[in-house]
C-alpha cells in the first residue's frame, strides 16, 4: 500500500459555515396572505397621507391664528398711536445710519430701503427669503402672504394692515417739529477784566444787539486797532485763537493785549518754572480767558437736538421722494386712462347723435308714409263702396233684362 501523507491524514475540523449549506425552505405564500400584505401597505400609506394632511392643516391653522392675533393687536391701538409708532420707527433708521457711518465698511449693518425690519416671517417664524412691508416692520415669505396684501408699480409690498390704513396710497407725512424762538446768548465777564467797561465778553451776540450799540462797539474796536499799530500774532497765538469761536468782537485796551501776547510767548519758549511765575498779574489776566473757554462751545461740536431732529425729518422726507414719484406716475397713468375713456365716450356720443339723426329722418319718413297709407286706405274704402254700388246696379240690370226677355217670349 502506498504511504499516506501525514499532512493529508490529519483531520481538518469543519467550520459550521464551511462546506455545509443551510437549505432554507422557501415559504410559498397563499393568495389570501398576499392580499393581506397589500392591504397593510395601503393602510400604512393612507395613514401617512392622513398624518401629513393633519400636520398641514394644523400648520395652516396656527399660521392663520398668529396672523389674526397680530391684526387684532394692531386694531386695538388708536390711529394716532399707530402714526407715532410709524414716526419713531422711521427715526430709528436715522440713528442706525449715523452709527453705521462711524463703523468700518465690513462691520456695517445691512440697512435696507426704510427702517429696521423683522428678521423672521410673522406667519411661519422662519428667517430666509423674506419680503418686507414698505410702511411697517413686518416681513413675510412669498408663499405665506395673507389675503388682502397689495403691491404698487415699483413692486413695493404692503401688508393687509397697511392696506386697511390706506398707507399703500397715502402714507403718513413726517412733519418737522416747530423751531423754538431764539433767545439772546450771554457770556459772563471774566474776573480780571471786571474793571474795564469795553470788554466784549460781557455783551450779547453782535447780531442780537441794537444797531447803535453795534456801531459803537465797531468804533471802539477801530480805535484800539489804531493804538496797537501793526501787531502780527505768532503761530502759537493763531493756533490757540482758532480753537474757540468767540461770539462778539474782542475789544481790549492796548496794554492788556500786549501783556497777554508777551505772556503767551514766554509760556511757549520758557522751560524753567521761575520764568513763568515772574509776572503773576499777567497770569491772572491771561488765565481767565482760558478758564472761560471751557464753558463755550467749540465750532466742531454737534448741532442742537431740535436742529438734528428737524434735519432727520428732512432726510426722511427726501427718502420718501421715490414713493411720491411713484404715486405721481400712477396718477399720471390714471389721468391718461381717464382721458382715453373721455375720448371714447365723446366718440360714442358722436355716433349716438348720428344714429339719432338717422332715426329722426326715418321717423319723418315714416310719418309721411303713414299719411300716404291712410289716404290709400280711404281711397280703397271709397272704391270698395263704388264697387258694391256697381254690383247692385248690374244685378238690377240683369233682373230687368230677364223680365224683358220673358215678356218678349210670351
UniProtKB/TrEMBL annotation:
Signal peptide: none annotated. Keywords: Coiled coil. Residues 321-410 form a coiled coil. Residues 1-11 have a biased composition (Basic residues). Residues 1-45, 173-205, 232-303 are annotated as: Disordered. Residues 173-183 have a biased composition (Pro residues). The keyword Coiled coil applies. Residues 32-45, 193-204, 280-291 have a biased composition (Polar residues). It comes from the Eukaryota. InterPro entries: Znf_FYVE_PHD (IPR011011). This is PHD-type domain-containing protein. It comes from Penicillium hordei.
Amino acid at each position: 500500500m502506498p504511504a499516506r501523507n501525514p499532512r493529508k491524514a490529519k483531520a481538518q475540523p469543519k467550520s459550521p459555515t464551511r462546506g455545509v449549506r443551510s437549505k432554507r425552505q422557501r415559504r410559498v405564500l397563499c393568495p389570501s396572505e398576499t392580499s393581506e400584505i397589500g392591504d397593510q401597505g395601503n393602510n400604512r400609506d393612507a395613514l401617512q397621507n392622513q398624518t401629513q394632511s393633519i400636520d398641514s392643516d394644523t400648520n395652516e391653522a396656527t399660521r392663520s391664528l398668529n396672523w389674526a392675533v397680530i391684526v387684532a393687536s394692531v386694531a386695538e391701538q388708536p390711529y394716532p398711536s399707530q402714526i407715532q409708532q410709524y414716526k419713531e420707527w422711521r427715526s430709528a433708521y436715522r440713528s442706525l445710519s449715523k452709527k453705521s457711518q462711524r463703523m468700518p465698511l465690513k462691520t456695517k449693518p445691512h440697512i435696507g430701503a426704510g427702517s429696521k425690519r423683522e428678521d423672521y416671517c410673522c406667519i411661519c417664524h422662519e428667517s430666509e427669503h423674506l419680503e418686507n412691508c414698505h410702511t411697517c416692520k413686518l416681513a413675510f415669505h412669498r408663499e405665506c402672504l395673507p389675503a388682502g396684501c397689495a403691491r404698487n408699480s415699483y413692486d413695493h409690498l404692503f401688508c393687509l394692515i397697511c392696506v386697511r390704513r390706506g398707507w399703500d396710497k397715502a402714507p403718513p407725512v413726517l412733519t418737522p417739529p416747530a423751531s423754538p424762538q431764539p433767545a439772546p446768548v450771554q457770556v459772563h465777564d471774566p474776573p480780571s477784566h471786571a474793571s474795564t467797561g469795553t470788554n466784549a465778553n460781557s455783551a450779547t451776540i453782535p447780531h442780537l444787539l441794537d444797531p447803535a450799540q453795534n456801531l459803537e462797539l465797531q468804533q471802539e474796536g477801530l480805535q484800539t486797532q489804531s493804538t496797537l499799530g501793526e501787531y502780527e500774532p505768532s503761530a502759537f497765538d493763531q493756533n490757540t485763537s482758532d480753537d474757540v469761536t468767540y461770539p462778539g468782537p474782542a475789544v481790549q485796551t492796548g496794554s492788556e493785549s500786549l501783556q497777554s501776547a508777551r505772556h503767551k510767548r514766554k509760556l511757549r519758549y520758557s522751560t524753567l518754572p521761575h520764568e513763568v511765575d515772574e509776572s503773576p498779574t499777567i497770569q491772572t489776566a491771561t488765565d481767565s480767558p482760558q478758564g472761560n473757554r471751557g464753558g463755550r462751545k467749540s465750532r466742531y461740536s454737534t448741532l442742537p437736538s431740535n436742529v438734528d431732529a428737524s434735519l432727520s425729518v428732512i432726510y426722511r422726507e427726501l427718502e420718501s421722494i421715490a414713493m411720491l414719484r411713484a404715486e405721481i406716475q400712477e396718477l399720471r397713468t390714471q389721468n391718461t386712462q381717464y382721458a382715453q375713456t373721455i375720448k371714447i365716450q365723446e366718440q360714442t356720443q358722436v355716433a349716438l347723435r348720428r344714429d339719432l339723426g338717422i332715426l329722426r329722418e326715418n321717423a319723418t319718413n315714416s310719418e309721411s308714409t303713414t299719411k300716404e297709407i291712410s289716404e290709400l286706405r280711404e281711397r280703397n274704402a271709397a272704391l270698395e263702396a263704388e264697387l258694391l254700388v256697381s254690383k247692385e246696379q248690374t244685378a238690377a240690370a240683369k233682373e230687368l233684362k230677364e223680365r224683358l226677355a220673358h215678356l218678349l217670349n210670351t
